Amino acid sequence: MQEGLIEPGLLRRLKDENETRVVPPGEVIVKFQSYIKSIPIILRGHVKVTGEDDSGNEILLYYLSPGDSCVMSVLGALNGSMSKIQATTVEETEILFIRPERAATLVREQPGWAEYIFKLYQSRFEELLEAVTRVNFKKLDDRILELLKQKSKIFMSTMLPVTHQELADELGSPREAISRVLKKLENEGLLKLYRGKIKMM
């Protein structure tokens, strides 16, 4: 769990009152344009959160790590609005699912819950600012390397199960451009390309 993100006592209470499930990799836990049935809190593993443009193209917004929850899910659950994001497990992930009606009550009953939500807002806002900066000001080379380093940290390995198309989808760039830059980075000795995998050097 991220240090200090949620109070241990509050977490124990949430576990007692709500469902915890182990979710396999690749499972969508929050869908685009669907009503939020529960608020996920990540206990173990990682979840990828993506947005969608008017043409239906997805782009990576951020990853959720242990201790995190999705601010957009919190908003949707509390307001009864439809989801504007999609959340998908990256690996086997243990998730605590908070019922929306319970989440609304906790805001009034538990100051620690409100503080947790504010911390999430701050964290996500900073990450989205970084995402905007990457898209508008950083070269594709740097964006690819940053994403691969992030994935290396998540999987705790330098050998990453990632395809060129997956990187293209997450970065919102054409696959051809991604492949061209990856080959350039390989020639520079920064990584090694394999079928369906990339090794960071």
3D structure, described in words:
The chain is of the alpha+beta class and 201 residues long. The chain is built from 7 helices and 10 strands. It has helices spanning 8-17, 71-79, 100-109, 111-137, 140-155, 164-171, 175-187; strands at 19-23, 28-30, 39-44, 47-52, 58-64, 86-89, 93-98, 159-160, 191-194, 197-200. The strands form 3 sheets. It has a 4-stranded antiparallel β-sheet. The protein is elongated and about 55 Å long. The relative contact order is 0.14. The mean pLDDT is 86.
Counting H and I runs of at least 4 residues, what is the number of helices?
7
N/C terminus separation: 29 Å
Radius of gyration over all CA atoms, rounded: 18 Å
Low-confidence stretches: none
Major beta sheet summary: 4 strands, antiparallel
> How much helix is in the residues?
40-55%
What's the total number of strands?
Answer: 10
Major sheet: arrangement of strands: 2-6-4-5
- Structural class by helix and strand composition: alpha+beta
Overall residue-averaged pLDDT value = 86
Q: H/E series, N to C? A: HEEEEEHEEHHHEHHEE
Beta-strand proportion: 15-25%
The general outline is elongated
Summarize the structure.
The protein has 201 residues and is an alpha+beta fold. The chain has helices at 8-17, 71-79, 100-109, 111-137, 140-155, 164-171, 175-187; strands at residues 19-23, 28-30, 39-44, 47-52, 58-64, 86-89, 93-98, 159-160, 191-194, 197-200. The longest helix has 27 residues, at 111-137.
